[in-house]
TrEMBL record:
Family: Belongs to the LysR transcriptional regulatory family.
Pfam families noted in UniProt: HTH_1 (PF00126), LysR_substrate (PF03466)
Species lineage: Bacteria, Pseudomonadati, Pseudomonadota, Alphaproteobacteria, Rhodospirillales
Record's keyword terms, sorted: DNA-binding, Transcription, Transcription regulation
Record domain HTH lysR-type: where: 1-58
Species of origin: Kiloniella antarctica
Protein name (record): LysR family transcriptional regulator
Length: 296
């Protein structure tokens, strides 16, 4: 029994006739018939009934074909592995990740990747708002981790990655934190909301989690935002993993703000549908798949 014989069997079953299988495999019809007959003789089973115009799998043939199909799939996968082993590593892989996601788990992925592919330079960029998707669509980033906001789904392959909890907080001594009832939008407009700037081109207006008509302070990153809030100079939403210790210690307090509930930010790992992944980018993609379903 050979791989080629199984390919011939699959071609006959999927195309419906010996003639069509011969055309599909670019072989003569007599060669196709001979290879199938040789396979049947070797295993001692009649796989196809020739009584009608279109050959039909026998009862035993159906069982054999199901197993043969799995073998062919495994062989094709093995061929892909061999292709990757023979391929050259990319000189660089660019991973752009939303700044709301913690860095440590990604460092573990990068460490494993650089150990396996030391010749490839891994470039990691922390981005905000539209930054990651712009990097991907412009052909700069190979892979991104971001929300689906503004993502053209026809151009991007997206897989659920993780969820991050965003909590509006302030220092306990900042006035809105001392209000035990819900803070209305009107009340909050007199207090400074600290927001992180969009790292993209700014062509799309920033609208997520912005209090309408309020005072605002824009900073470049979440570390600066957190420091300003801890300094009692404003309030704003921060990823829970960044502030869990401060909340537990009473240094920051979750706020009850109208129109600004605690929310889950759903993240996806994404890559372009129009760009072939290199072996290192594929390796990172596969490692990131293990994060699916995480909630932070």
């Amino acid at each position: 029994m050979t791989y080629e014989q199984l390919v011939v069997l699959q071609a006959i079953v999927t195309t419906g006739t010996f003639r069509a299988a011969a055309e599909h495999l670019n072989k003569s019809q007599s060669a196709i018939s001979h290879m199938l007959k040789k396979l049947e003789d070797e295993i001692g089973i009649v796989l196809l009934s020739r009584e009608e115009y279109r050959p039909k799998l026998t009862t035993s043939g159906e069982v054999f074909y199901r197993h043969a199909t799995r073998v062919l799939q495994q062989m094709q996968h093995l061929g892909g592995v061999v292709k990757n082993l023979n391929a050259k590593q990319e000189p660089e892989v660019f991973l752009a990740v939303t700044a709301t996601y913690p860095l440590k788990p990604l460092l573990d992925v990068i460490r494993e990747t650089t150990d396996a592919y030391p010749a490839t330079h891994i470039r990691l960029s922390r981005e905000s708002m539209s930054g990651p998707i712009e990097q991907l669509l412009h052909g700069d980033a190979d892979l991104i981790v971001a929300t689906m906001d503004g993502v053209p789904v026809d151009q991007v392959e997206a897989v659920p990655f993780s969820s991050v909890t965003i909590i509006p907080v302030a220092h306990p001594e900042y006035a809105p934190a001392q209000n035990k009832e819900m803070n209305s939008i009107r009340e909050m407009q007199s207090y400074v909301q600290v927001v992180v700037a969009d790292s993209g081109s700014g062509k799309k207006p920033q609208s997520r989690d912005l209090l309408p008509g309020g005072l605002r302070w824009t900073v470049s990153d979440f570390a600066a935002k957190k420091d300003i809030i801890l300094a009692k100079m404003g309030w704003g939403g921060l990823p829970e993993h960044l502030i869990r210790d401060e909340i537990d210690k009473g240094e920051l307090m979750p706020l009850n703000v109208e129109g600004y509930p605690q929310r889950q930010s759903h993240l996806f790992q994404m890559r372009s549908r129009n760009r072939d992944a290199g072996i290192v980018a594929q390796s990172i993609w596969d490692r990131l798949m293990s994060f699916s379903g995480q909630i932070l």
